[in-house]
Amino acid sequence: MKRLSLPTDTKIAFMRWRVPAMIGSAIGCILSLALFALVGMNYGIDFQGGTMVELRFHEVRPISEIRQEVGQLGLGDVQIVEFGEPTDILIRVEEQPGGDEAQQLAVMQLRELYGNDADFRRVEVVGPRVSGELAQAGIIAVVVALIAIMVYIWLRFEWHFAVGAVLCTMHDVILTIGLFSATQLDFNLTSIAAVLTIVGYSLNDTVVVYDRVRENLRRYKRMPMPQLIDLSINQTLSRTLMTSITTLLALAALFVFGGEVIRSFTFAMIWGIVVGTYSSIFIAAPLLITLHLRPGRASGGGKEDEADDGEPAGDAEPTPA
Amino acid sequence: MLHFPRWQTISIVLVVILGVAAVIPNLVPRSWMAPLPSWLPKERIVLGLDLQGGAYLLYQVDQEDYIDTRLRTVTNEVREALLKEPRIGYTGLGVVSDGVEVRIRDNTRIDEAADRLRQLLNPLGQGVFTQGGVNEFEFSQSDNGLMRLQFTEAGLAQRVRSIVDQSIEVVRRRVDELGTTEPNIQRQGDDRILVEAPGGDPEQLKAIIGTTAQLTFHLVDTSVNPTDVLQRGRAPAGKMLLMTSEDNEAEPGVPYVVDEAPLITGEDLTDAQPAFQQQTNEPVVTFRLTTGGARRFCDVTTREAPSRTPFAIVLDDEVVSAPSIREPICGGAGQISGSFTVQSANDLAVLLRAGALPAALTLVEERTVGPGLGADSIAAGETAAIVGAVLVAASMVLVYGFFGVIANVALVVNVVLILGLLSLLGATLTLPGIAGIVLTIGMAVDANVLIYERIREEGRAGRSPILAIDAGFSRAFATILDANVTTLIAAVILFQLGSGPVRGFAVTLAIGILTTIFTAFLFTRLMVAMWVRRRRPTEVPV
Lengths: 321, 542
Known about the structure:
heterodimer, A: alpha+beta, 6 strands, elongated, disordered C terminus, B: alpha+beta, 21 strands, about 50% helix, about 20% strand
């Protein structure tokens, strides 16, 4: 069977684009934060409180009719959308004033209205007390995860790598927040899981590149940083692409076949993989230069590294057995 | 790197066999597994409520409600203590912000009154760990005869704890009565109770759990006109005004003035059953009383029978019915009638058998999934996993040829191990969990890709095939470890801090990372080593 070949032995000068890439990313981050501040995310009931009901009607009903019927209940802001099959309807009711019991009342009204015409496939009610806690727990989870990972990388590498990795991860998280703000996808507990997985994936990618940078730093003690980073990225490029492709394939299957419930989750993940792959090449690696990992040409090198700029110095060629 | 001692080879194969054995119970009908020896793993993967349908209900104990009820009881106790012979005159007895206040009229007997009230302080939980126990109340008095019993903070906290424990017991009995299979009921935080029940009717579950079910019998005071009391809005001391329930069709909203102190409470019941009244054939609830309760009931009914005083049967502050006492009731049994349906009579019997909740429970979070949606979600998840796996497997073979096949075998082993571990650990598989597995399928090949790419590189650097393979493995391992440990950290934190869908996802992600490390470090390496030994390759194979 004929194999597809991945790009091997590439010599792409990624660092030549590092300034435009950094500027582009900075603009992207600012836009994301601006969107977040001005438009805001579409927080699901997990964080905002309220009621969500997924109905499957026994026969197809025009959505305008349902809108009118539910509107007459006087439940405040109600969103009604079609969902998957033409008989499936998703109703989201904003948090009702009057505490936890008031939320239950909204469900009862909906049941009275449609109990005979539809199956209640899913009912979620989050009261005001819980929604605040869930939001808080979500934010804490992301922050604690970032700190723990930074500590691990700091222990395994040098501090420059830890800072670089976390900045790069924050870049990915901010762009993901931007995605949620721009598309107004429901941001709920599952989205938090998506964000943290993006964090994990992006770091995974970053660590692979950093690992190679560290290895090359030991090998080529006199090579200038931009060149060394280009070399490291090119050496890991085929792996980065292959892993991103397989992961995207798996997520694409999840997006198409995984059902409506986790579609926004998968969508966010796909975006995260693309952004994570981009950022490990164009943000994480150049950040090492910005952070002056090896300022000047030979400062990191000792006396033994007169070897040269091209040949491996650290580990000796093993002799064939 | 390519040398494996025999014990290592055997252990690796054993782990894989164990994984397969752990997955098998999920694939065959339960009856097939039953006759097999007990040491074989028979656990199945527990499906989350989002996959099998069911209800997730989070309740919070209503402290305010408890404080209200408790202070009402204490008010009664204070009254009884002061009215005990010789009586002490008082005025202004009532509940004032988290405490009970009373003013003693007779200045000369203040000390005596204080003594009587101090006896009500009620020390709580004199266990080994609570030094000397805490008092539920604090007693204070000011010069002009004003006395006060106030909840202590420690006492209240301890009360809330025991209320939650008690409530969990009551809720468990109620849910069991409904015949729900494998419900999970547990404390969450200081004052919350989580109920997870697969299948069943969530509405019935909510109705059953949400009712306090305080049953009391009170003598009706026929000397006062309830309509007057209703208009004045205030009952005489020691009496209270109660209404019949709104949905009592026979006589909705009828007021009754009754003695505040109950004749019988739910604690005096030993059993309750739904039944039909013989004459009218309408549903009723029959009950039996404890010996003590039966004696008290007998005494009162004997005393009141001549005057045909009615007594009110009260459930959660609403009068269910108020039959007149026609004859002494001394058999320790009785029945409650009051326009029940078969269903409501049955529900009431369940509630009475299970006992009353010490305080009202407020539903603060509810997630219910119908069985249909759950089945759809499983099907969708399976399809996604299969399609994803096929796509990933195909691209691995396209790019790496025979080594791609090795990677795919490793991938299959990986998924089998994930499912096996989920079965053995009894971890719950949720829809986000399936998403986690699909994601792992995508990322699991990463370890193989790292190794293969490294082997290629070493080969290009001019090493012999065996050395290239050897170096490829050893060099890739540091990277694989670093990359996976960072993701594992994220997964562990997700699990610790997350709830619901986040947890389900974190479990499979974490397990997936562990199995990925196993398959990359040991299984793939073993397969490649066996291949190398047999083939003695002359050129770098990937």
